């Protein structure tokens, strides 16, 4: 049964292609960006659906306020950390995201950060701007022949593996779901975590943040790694224990780290700030999906799924980003 989405509230800035596509299919779109919670609670009951990116939090309070009218919340991006999915399900609100839209952009940033750990282009570039010629200070190492461990072999992890293999890296990986055959197709030797730790020169994480992956890289696991391991996180803040990285950098167990994501954004904690300011850390402000192409892709994918839920177009039928199928079943 179609959901009859007629009025959509856009809560965070999304590419205009999303709005245009919805309007072409007879859906009214209203922009009200970054509303305070009390105003969002008043507004949300006027709409069938809402679209968010990262700024707006769709909490249990907001979902309760929208009960009876709100049917769908779409996130233009991967993951739904800012949406209370159990509360949405309790109110029969379908939650969907755009899991594939950011993949290439997040993958490419990961590869760039791996390169920036091998060759210290960030501090070298800064030293040039400061008028110095510190050629001897910024010698690096080749990626060729080194071992890259990819933890999490979903879309992004596999894309990283394919690219870094062409640089001559040996790729090993772990994922509880991906089969050995799927890993092999992407040029990855699938191993257990215990087998991976002592082999990796570089480790990159590409998992969701769930209890099993929180502090997946910790003081305990770093102790099992090669001395001088380098670590990258373009996935979710909290997968890597930041204090463990700081300690590892000080002891020499860790030779470098690159972070695009943090447990709190913007960072406020003393630990995160110490990590960011460390000379052997390359830090970026959550840029994984920040490309022109990814922003168009995720915006369009949200709109396509709303149209599919309406059942109004034979062209758009996929609702692959739906997180809580049980809420969707309520309308069928």
Task: Give a brief outline of the structure.
The chain is an alpha/beta fold.
Walk me through this protein's architecture:
Residues 8-309 form the D-isomer specific 2-hydroxyacid dehydrogenase catalytic domain. Residues 113-288 form the D-isomer specific 2-hydroxyacid dehydrogenase NAD-binding domain. Homotetramer. Keywords: Acetylation, NAD, Oxidoreductase, Phosphoprotein. This protein is of the alpha/beta class and 332 residues long. 37% of the residues lie in helices and 15% in strands. It is built from 14 helices and 12 strands. The protein has helices at residues 16-24, 37-44, 60-65, 85-90, 103-118, 121-129, 155-166, 180-185, 193-196, 219-222, 242-251, 270-277, 292-310, 325-329; strands at 7-10, 28-31, 49-52, 72-75, 94-96, 147-151, 170-174, 189-190, 202-205, 229-233, 254-259, 281-283. The strands form 2 sheets. It has a 7-stranded parallel beta sheet with strand order 8-7-6-9-10-11-12, with helices on both faces. A 5-stranded parallel beta sheet has the order 2-1-3-4-5. α5 packs across α7 and α11 crosses α12 (270-277). The chain is elongated, with a radius of gyration of 22 Å. The mean pLDDT is 95.
């Amino acid at each position: 049964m179609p959901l009859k989405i007629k009025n959509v509230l856009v809560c965070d800035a999304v590419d205009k292609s999303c709005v245009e596509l919805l309007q072409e299919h007879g859906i009214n779109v209203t922009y009200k960006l970054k509303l305070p919670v009390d105003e969002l609670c008043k507004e949300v009951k006027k709409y069938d659906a809402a679209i968010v990116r990262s700024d707006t939090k769709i909490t249990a309070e907001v979902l309760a306020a929208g009960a009876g009218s709100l049917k769908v919340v779409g996130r233009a991006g991967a993951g739904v950390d800012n949406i209370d999915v159990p509360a949405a399900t309790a109110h029969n609100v379908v939650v969907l995201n755009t899991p594939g839209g950011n993949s290439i952009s997040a993958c490419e940033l990961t590869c760039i950060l791996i390169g920036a750990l091998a060759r210290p282009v960030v501090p070298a570039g800064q030293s040039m701007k400061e008028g110095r010629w510190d050629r001897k200070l910024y010698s690096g190492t080749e990626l060729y022949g080194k071992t890259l461990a990819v933890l999490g072999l979903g879309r992004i992890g596999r894309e990283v593996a394919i690219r870094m293999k062409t640089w001559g890296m040996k790729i090993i990986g772990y994922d509880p779901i991906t089969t050995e055959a799927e890993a092999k197709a992407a040029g990855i030797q699938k191993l257990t975590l215990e087998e991976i730790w002592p082999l990796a020169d570089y480790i990159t994480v590409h998992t969701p943040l769930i209890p099993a992956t929180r502090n997946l890289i910790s003081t305990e696991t770093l102790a099992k790694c090669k001395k001088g391991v380098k670590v990258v996180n373009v996935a979710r803040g909290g997968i890597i224990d930041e204090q463990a990285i700081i300690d590892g950098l000080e002891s020499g167990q860790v030779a470098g780290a690159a972070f695009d994501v943090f447990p709190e954004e913007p960072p406020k904690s003393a630990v995160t700030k110490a990590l960011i300011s460390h000379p052997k850390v390359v830090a970026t402000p959550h840029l994984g999906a920040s490309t022109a192409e990814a922003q168009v892709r995720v915006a369009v994918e949200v709109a396509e799924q709303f149209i599919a839920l309406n059942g109004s177009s034979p062209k758009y039928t996929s609702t692959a980003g739906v997180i809580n199928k049980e809420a969707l079943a309520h309308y069928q």
